[in-house]
Amino acid sequence: MKLKKTQVCIVGSGPSGLLLSQLLHNAGISSIIVDRQSRERIQARVRAGVLEWGSVDALDEAGVGRRMHRDGLPHDGFDLIFDDDLHRIDVKALTGKQVMVYGQTELTIELIARRLEQGCEIIFSAQDVQPIDVESDRPKVRYTKIGEMVEIECDYVAGCDGFHGAARQAIPSRVLKTFERIYPFGWLGVLVEQPPVSDELIYASHERGFALCSMRSQTRSRYYVQCPLSDTVEDWSDQRFWDELALRVGADVAGKLRTGDSIEKSIAPLRSFVAEPMRYGNLFLAGDAAHIVPPTGAKGLNLAISDIRILWRALIEHYKKANDTWLDRYSEICLKRVWKVERFSWFMSTMLHQFPEFSGFEKRMQRAEFDHIVGSETASRSLAENYVGLPLEM
Ligand code: FAD
Ligand code: DHB
Fold first, then answer.
1. FRET partner for 59 with CA separation of 20 to 30 A, picked from 107, 229, 307, 340?
2. 319 annotated active-site
3. Closest residue (by CA) to atom 1 of ligand 2?
4. 277/5 Cα distance (integer angstroms)
5. Hey, what's the torsion of the CAs at 349, 378, 223, 40, to 10 degrees?
């Protein structure tokens, strides 16, 4: 067996793990990242597209914001469409803040390149990755690569390995509490090399189901439609997708839609999930490893980034000031914010999707939520305040 040593061993090379590694490096703290996927697979995943300004600031602070400012699109607002009635949420006027439309894929590609350039060891395609001895003060991460077993000894393990990862499983079931809601539908996403239908994002509720018009650049668009969980991408030809999207966004928007051959198509299930606590011994969970939100509020990546900011601050206090108060409070500080963001994502999802079990009453409630937002600046501001990101209270 081969042995390695580092200060913080990070499981997962998604945005959470990579950003943590970058921030630690900037402060002179060493880390090794272990991921079960290949670099190519990680860099090909199409996921989030909207960054809160707090996330933008965090990436700038980490020194990885150059490409984001060059290629990202700052947005002042977005549209809500409910059964063909349109209401713009003027995020900038309501909160004084913007959001940045920028692909998670691009961010991940840049972070991986930067970390490797700086000499960080990222182990891709590792098998049987497992945090061990996390209750002790010498925790380890064990994995196998090309038939050889390796152990990385460290001070702390950061479990940044997403919802299906191994880190959460290292917390005994007598300690771990989980809270979950599975939604009875998924999102079918399509990426296309065509200019976006509108300058801003459009979230549409329609009797045929939810639809979202988003973008990656002035020439590349990202669209989603709600679909049954039993559907597969093979059920959806490009033509079927465009026809369905056009019906759901209404004639005005559909008239401007630029369609084309999809360059990526995938289905994601919708889930709300929280694991408590987010720390066990010297293992800290962050990002999707600890919580999942349905994508409707564009919060998953942003929540991952805020966990990392809190964890980073706690680790800096430990290494630079021998103060463990922040590490001790990590789970409590994160979870307070996590639950507020869970609430917002659940609210947006519940308002805008068709639920097979909803009767006339719940459907009227959905419409009443929309009408309330349209008629009340206070309600619009509350939505906008959540969309741009709640303050990080540390
Ligand atoms: P991940 O990105 O899941 O990374 C985890 C890493 O761990 C992966 O590289 C994986 O290969 C690795 N891993 C897994 N298991 C193991 C193991 N056993 N051992 C080692 N490594 C392992 N969020 C937003 O904020 N805004 C949006 O607009 C938005 N839109 C979304 C749209 C869709 C369709 C989807 C699916 C998600 C969206 N999200 C959005 C959510 C966002 O993508 C996630 O919250 C984000 O990827 C979380 O980052 P992470 O680093 O915590 O986890
Ligand atoms: C995107 C995804 C979301 O979940 C969202 O709310 C907004 C945009 C996107 O992929 O572009």
1. 340
2. no
3. 49
4. 27
5. -80
| Distance between CA atoms of residues 80 and 165, nearest Å | 35
Q: What is the mean pLDDT of residues 328-339?
A: 98
Tokens of 116: 């490797």
218 touches 195 (CB < 8 A): yes
pLDDT tens column, 63-110: 999 999 999 999 999 999 999 899 999 999 999 999 999 999 999 999
Query: 296, 202 in Cβ contact below 8 A?
Result: no
DSSP state of 367: H
Which of 13, 56, 15, 45 is closest to 31 using CA atoms? 13
| CA geometry: angle 133, 135, 139, nearest 5 deg | 40
Q: Between the CA of residue 336 and those of 33, 101, 176, what are the distances in Å?
A: 28, 26, 17
Q: Measured between alpha carbons, how far is 186 from 227 in angstroms, rounded to an integer?
A: 5
What's the pLDDT score for residue 394? 79
Give the side-chain half-sphere CA count within 13 A for 106. 18
Q: What tokens appear for 70 in the block?
A: 């060059």
- Contact present, 240 and 263 (Cβ < 8 Å): no
Out of 102, 183, 224, 387, which one is annotated catalytic? 387
